[in-house]
Write a structure and sequence with these properties.
This protein has helices at 2-51, 64-77, 80-93, 98-116, 123-143, 148-160, 173-177. By secondary structure, it is an all-alpha fold.
Length: 190
């Protein structure tokens, strides 16, 4: 009797371990499929970009994780015009889940990078990009108030473009025309 119960306990533990291993294997297979899809899409995008600079291969049938990974990769390559609409579509399709929150955060980072970068059009465009980043971080913090990365980036954006109100209540016209964006010391974002 004692030996039989030890064997039953051992068999139960072995089955639990096998179930966990099978679950992890399925997640690994899914992650590899996502990576292959992103790699194939980015390769197709680079080929298409050489032929026609504005074309981006994007299918709405892809999994949200694939679209998010594609948008992040495009953003890191500096293809902001292609990455922005992908982030926006993810936010529109998946507003409250983890993928939508990640897209919202990364879109804020994209705008903040554009605002930090010294664009040829000057400080006005930089200020607009920083304001867009602040709006995205605030939206994310309304959804997930405990997101510390978004809080940090919002504070950094507020440091770059402070929101101060004049004491008189009406803004000074001269102050409105003297818009300056602070130069950040480091260019990395979480």
């Amino acid at each position: 009797m004692k030996r039989a119960s030890v064997h039953i306990i051992f068999a139960t533990v072995a089955l639990c371990c096998a179930a966990v291993a099978a679950y992890d294997w399925l997640r690994l297979q899914h992650a590899q499929q996502v990576n292959q899809s992103v790699t194939a899409t980015l390769t197709a995008n680079k080929t298409a970009a050489k032929a026609t600079p504005r074309s981006v291969v994007s299918t709405e049938d892809d999994a949200p994780q694939v679209r998010l990974a594609r948008a992040i990769a495009l953003s890191k390559e500096g293809a902001y015009d292609a990455a922005g609409p992908l982030f926006e579509s993810l936010i529109r399709d998946q507003p409250l889940d983890e993928t939508g929150r990640a897209a919202l955060f990364d879109l804020g980072n994209l705008y903040l990078r554009q605002g930090i970068g010294h664009s040829p059009s000057g400080a006005i465009e930089s200020l607009a990009m920083v304001e867009e980043a602040k709006a995205r971080y605030r939206t994310l913090l309304r959804i997930a108030p405990d997101d510390w990365d978004a809080r940090y980036n919002l504070e950094r954006a507020l440091w770059l473009a402070p929101e101060t109100r004049s004491a008189s209540g009406s803004p000074d016209v001269k102050e409105q025309h003297n818009v300056k964006v602070r130069d950040p010391e480091s260019r990395d974002l979480p």
